[in-house]
Amino acid sequence: MSEAASTPLSRRHLLELIGAAAGGSAMYRAMTSLGFAAESSWRGPIRLEGDPKGASVVILGAGLAGLTAAYELGRAGYQVQVLEYNARAGGRNWSIRGGDVYAELGGATQTCAFDEGLYLNPGPWRIPYHHHAILDYCRRFGVTLEPFIQLNHNALLHSTKAFDGRPQRIREVKADFEGAIAELLAKATRKGALDEAVSKEDQEILLEALRWHGGLDRDFRYRAGEDSAEFRGYVRNPGGGLSARPLHGEPIGTHEILTSRLWRGLQNFSSYDFQTTMFQPAGGMGRIGEAFARQIPNAIRYRAKVTGIHQDDRGVTVTFEDLGGGAVQQARADWCVCALPLTILSQLPVNVSAAMKAAIDAVPYASVVKTGLQFKRRFWEEDEHIFGGISYTDLPIREIAYPSAGMNAGGKGVLLGGYTWEGPNAYELTAMSPAERIQVALDCGAQIHPQYLSEFETGVSVAWHRVPFTLGCAGEWSDEARRDHYDDLCQIDGRIVLAGEHASHLPAWQEGAILSALDAITRLHSKVLAI
Amino acid sequence: MRRLSRQRIRRASALCATVLFSAAASAQGLSSMSQGWVFGEQGGEALYAHVCAACHQPDAKGAVGAASYPALAEDKNLASAEYVETQLFSGKSMPALGRMMSNQQAADVINYVRAHFGNNYRDEVSAADIEAARRQAGSAP
User: What is the predicted ipTM?
Assistant: First the structure.
């Protein structure tokens, strides 16, 4: 608003004018030239122009893909009905809060005993700043976002095979690893080892950059002192009065830091998907699904288990079981947007082309386990000054994530006490009871934070292969499967089109689900208008 | 930071845990979990209990939600050992778990499931059979 008020014609306003006058493609070209949107297939809020003349669409699954399709097609004038297996909207967009009851496949039932305001996001839990579509829906639906802290320099990197199992501060590992590299490169440069590759002038600049960036002293050495401490921190921080003098720590040696392999953990902070700024909805990721559902009152039929999809040349008939009453019923519509996970769809009778059926059958789902642990006090903040962020470990829990909300306010808190993605440990954890998974999370976490022993209160654990509504976490596309099947999966087959993260190049991200739905309904709408 | 005995942690947490502990004989804890990206379990029984049972369940009767995990108990599909090998290595709808097992482990778990849970197929597969199946599926161990 302030931008619009302070300039005669804001960039966004200009784009809206271009869009209104010349249509979406002209607006997109303008956006690209102004530096917007170039890196995403997001084109701004979708405009499905033209009258669908009362055409009806049945949408299967009320996850973010199905909800996006239902909301946008409804706005465009379609009659929409959504069939959803769960008694809530959102699908994998989900938060477990105190009082929630969750029964997994196999029958184990957990009643979450978290305190008011505390939650676990068992599925998605962070939103990159470049996921424009989901950010836009949050803005339009009034979902309050807060920063998700991915990188906390004071969180920990831990390996059972290095430093006798003692966790190391991320800032120390990062500074010492980069400092060691800078020192080595400076040494090589000054010995003339780079003379063939780099001009003399550039070598001077390189040396300046290495000293500047790597925390080297005037002799191009990375060692205990103010130059390195400015990056790695202090053994004793600068203070006031007579206790003012800071104490510099001894950097970790090059051999130790290389062989510890703790530098592997640093990748979690530098890759594009995890660069700052990241976001989370205040109160839990599930707020997004809840907000979508409020936009389409009465459109969702809950507790409907789809058992078959049949199309003919005039429409689509979906057979479903009402889990409340047990009766088998049918829904009929002109078109179908199927946003069911492939784990479900692959088991249903559905008359689509052989190529699409092969694609539906081609994708296994990742095994992922998350465990939330409530503690009596936020010891990670009070004792260790870790405010948000993530510690990484080679233990089966893989990571411990500290809450990005409620910081420095005292009271209780819920840690993400384990987030195991694929590999043997994910299956082993899934084969355990929830209580056993929580026990493993405690056994692992106590090696990093001994306070676990005295402060733990209650936990909840979700193993995605035992989640009744997905039977897995997310589509695990191999390069070969994507090459052979992805385009077939995304085609409109007669009157059916698929949507979901599995029908995107952003697997396991909510943005992929939304962009997939927008792409699918845009093509579907064109087909409807052409008939 | 000091390490703590698992027993002490267990005692502390047992006081507070709100979920009931399973009495399953297959209980596994941190000390017996795999390290790295290959399963550490040896023998068909352990592999079944800590890997396959994740979905097919400890009693091999499968599970039903929005869709289902097939029962392996009294499963006529298991008459064909090749069928099971394909499931373990193809990476279609079921994850290619065989790629995280040695040939011997894969053979052991296939032989186990084909001879238990009401199945009585006694023609065993060997590690060499698995090697051939692995090559056919194009997956390196």
Answer: 0.88
